């Protein structure tokens, strides 16, 4: 179940609450008795690849596209005899 953050305008309290995926309620009761509203925040987006320098390909890899290009360049340079060194 996802955790939702709520904020009360009356007492300035913020708190988290577990809600089911199907719950579409944007308000919930606060400990002071007022209705607290849901705080909407942007999602956390993490890259699937960490930017790094690949010694195997001799190139900076900052994305999947860079990685594919480095592999293709190494493949062409070696005449189709690239040995992949996966860790």
Write the layout of secondary structure elements.
Layout: E1 3-7, E2 14-18, E3 27-29, E4 35-38, E5 52-54, E6 59-61, H1 64-77
Antiparallel strand pairs: 1-2, 1-4, 3-4, 5-6
Features:
87 residues; alpha+beta; four-stranded antiparallel sheet; 1 helix; 6 strands; 16% helix; 26% strand
Give the termini separation.
35 Å
The string of secondary-structure elements, in order, is EEEEEEH
Number of strands: 6
Please, how many helices?
A: 1
- Major β-sheet, in short? 4 strands, antiparallel
The percentage of residues in β strands lies in 25-35%
What general outline do the C-alpha atoms trace? Answer: rod-shaped
What structural class do you assign from the helix and strand content? alpha+beta
Mean pLDDT: 82
Looking across the biggest beta sheet, what order are the strands in?
A: 2-1-4-3
**Uncertain stretches:** none
Overall domain count: 2
Q: How big is the Rg?
A: 25 Å
The helix fraction, in percent, is 10-25%
Notes on the protein architecture:
The radius of gyration is 25 Å and the shape is rod-shaped. The chain is 16% helix and 26% strand. The chain folds into two domains: 3-38, no CATH class; 47-78, no CATH class. The model has no long low-confidence stretch (mean pLDDT 82). A hairpin with a 6-residue loop joins strand 1 and strand 2 (14-18). It has one helix and six strands; from the N terminus they run ββββββα. The chain has a four-stranded antiparallel sheet, with no helix packed on it. The protein is α+β, with helices and mostly antiparallel strands and 87 residues long.
